[in-house]
Amino acid sequence: xxxxxxxxxxxxxxxxxxxxxxxxxxxxxxxxxxxxxxxxxxxxxxxxxxxxxxxxxxxxxxxxxxxxxxxxxxxxxxxxxxxxxxxxxxxxxxxxxxxxxxxxxxxxxxxxxxxxxxxxxxxxxxxxxxxxxxxxxxxxxxxxxxxxxxxxxxxxxxxxxxxxxxxxxxxxxxxxxxxxxxxxxxxxxxxxxxxxxxxxxxxxxxxxxxxxxxxxxxxxxxxxxxxxxxxxxxxxxxxxxxxxxxxxxxxxxxxxxxxxxxxxxxxxxxxxxxxxxxxxxxxxxxxxxxxxxxxxxxxxxxxxxxxxxxxxx
Length: 313
What we know:
The protein is rod-shaped, with a radius of gyration of 59 Å. Strands 1-2 form a two-stranded antiparallel sheet. The chain is 87% helix and 4% strand. By secondary structure, it is mainly alpha-helical. It has helices spanning 20-120, 127-143, 149-277, 281-295, 301-309; strands spanning 3-8, 11-15.
């Protein structure tokens, strides 16, 4: 503080009391605060390094989590694709079963018809023998001019019996062939059904493997996510500590600034007193400019130069 008091008319004297010990004390306080500031800055740097380490660990774990979950999704897609194939195969198998049901019914009908015709047979002769017998009888009927009516009637009756027997046999053979064809179709469809069943089992095993891999990947992701969350908690805690240390640093910097201003002010007072004692008119103007500066008034260029000249700002 610079004070002026009227001693005589036209004369003013500056009363300034500067205690050298006060200057030393303030300087020592500033040095102590600077040391504290350095310690806080080192602590802040250490915490920041530690924070960066935990952030890196957390981010690496979160990356692992993302990769595992992406892998789990891939397994799920593959599993679902295989399950879709299985559903298509089951649909085909159901169609085969429906066809088989019809063929089984046809086979029963053909077998029944064949057996029915076989039961109608009266002769136990093979087809070739019957055809040969008919041919001989017809030949006798056509070539014997002396055939008697009785013999002719006998031949015609025999041919009739044989023709009926041949017709029965042919019908039985026809239904037997249809039965065989149907059974062959059935066997082919059953083979196709077995192949489908084997393919379904194979795909089901693959689906189960992908399902288990998916579950395992999700489980691993959950476990690693817990670690990532723990690391994140460390990050939050360290950020809180860093925030507290930064507040302490700003508080120390504020104190340093205040003591530094006080120190500069005391030095300025000391200089003012010394220059006053020398009756330096130019310095008087610099002091006036300093007072204007403290009051927040606008300074001229000359006044700014005077303040710089005497290191008052």
